Structure formats: C-alpha cells, structure tokens
C-alpha cells in the first residue's frame, strides 16, 4: 500500500543520508568568508541555473557540494569562492542534466575570471574531498517526497508527480530563500523540507506524512517564520515559460527571483525575533 511503500522510500533516503553531513559551523574555518558571501554566491548560482534552464535538483546538488567541500577546507580566500561555486554547479549538472552546460559556458558566466584549466583543477579537488559522494538526498528531494505524500494521501500512486503546481512554486521559493541562509544548515535536510510544508499544509498532517515528531520539526518551523513572511510579501510565484522545455516540466527548472532583497527583510525581522539563533550576523 501507499504508506508502506512511502515508509520504505523514506527509510532508504534516510539511511542514504547518513553518509552526508552538513553543518553551519564550517565558516569558523574560513575567517575571510562572511555568511553574506555564501548567500550572494548561491543566489548567483540560481541565476546561472535559470539562464541555462537547469533543473532545481542541479542547484541543490551544487549547494550541497559547496557546503560539504567547504567543511573539508580551511582558510579559503573569498576570491576563490566563485570558482568553487561554478565548479560545484558544473559537477552537479553532469550528475543531473541530460544536456549539461559545456565547460566553456561555465567559464563564460564567470566573465572569464577563471579559465577552463582552473575549473578542471578545482573539479578534481572537489571530487577528491567529497570522496566522490555525489548523490545526497537534497532538501528538494525530501520536499518532493513529502509533498507527493501529502498530495497523494488519498491513495493515488506515491511517485506520480501530481502536486498542485501553484503550491509547489511557492514552496520551492521558500526553500530556496531558506537555503541562502547559512543557518539553514543547522537542520537536517528532511527537517527543512518538512518545515516548508508546514507553511502550506496543517502541521499535524505534515507530522503524520513525514513521520517526524513535533519536537523535531518545531524549532525549524519557528526559525523559518521570518523567511515565510518575507517571501509572502513578494506576491505569488508564477510558472515561467522556458523556450524548448515542455511546459509541464516547467516547475522542475530552477528559477530566480529577488532572493537577496527578501533576505534583507528576513534579517530585519530577525532583529525583532528574540530567540532566533544566529552563528554570526549575516548582513
């Protein structure tokens, strides 16, 4: 039945996830890198994804590779961040896309700041330090599973992509915005995904569908409140039209919106929300 199958999928994903660790503390190893620099880099990677009509999952893989690679390094200089970021996206696209961008296209989007040789050298370093562990369950893969379970709890096929599109676009925007904050890395990816769902579906239902108890989800839901408020001020996200892509696949393409402006209003709200923890000021 649906629930037994979904439990099996979730257990497989969770077991798989134990091999992949992320932490918001990695910036302590990089005194020259401020949290806002990570936000700006990830925002730029989202723009590159939209420009090349890459899938959402490609961005989320790149984000995961970047954060985990930074955990393995120390004292990275800020002028190398863009090289690490575009290299992580280059690897992610090769993992996820049927037609990944060419190396020269990656050089082009850095305005020729780096050469093809730079990216190839960095690619070897990233692959080595990630130990070729390139298939994490991302916050997006968890959200897709939970959203399907929630939408399909009437008994239709678990893995059919029958989510209400409008909801899905608002949810992916909120998840994107949250991932631009380093403090998102305080939470497990599945908890982030479940918490996003709580802003669109009754929390009791989310707890039932995800199998995550309230005491696990609640701290993340509370942390996420200013992000949800900021995103909602920008009106509804609508499906963009991508030339050459079938419209029913449009929701799987990574889209960019004014995330950095949204993040500014999140930081302002944070000032008025005592108890919201922060590793360092992100502004």
Automatic annotation (TrEMBL):
The coiled-coil segments of this chain are none
Q: Name any one Pfam family assigned in the record.
A: Cyclin_N
Subunit field text: Interacts with the CDK1 protein kinase to form a serine/threonine kinase holoenzyme complex also known as maturation promoting factor (MPF). The cyclin subunit imparts substrate specificity to the complex.
Q: What is this protein called?
A: G2/mitotic-specific cyclin-B2
Q: What's an example GO BP annotation here?
A: cell division
List the InterPro entries: Cyclin, Cyclin-like_dom, Cyclin-like_sf, Cyclin_C-dom, Cyclin_N, Cyclins_cyclin-box
Going by the entry's taxonomy, the superkingdom of the source organism is recorded as Eukaryota
Q: What does this protein do?
A: Essential for the control of the cell cycle at the G2/M (mitosis) transition.
Source organism per entry reads Salarias fasciatus (Jewelled blenny)
Q: Which family does it belong to?
A: Belongs to the cyclin family. Cyclin AB subfamily.
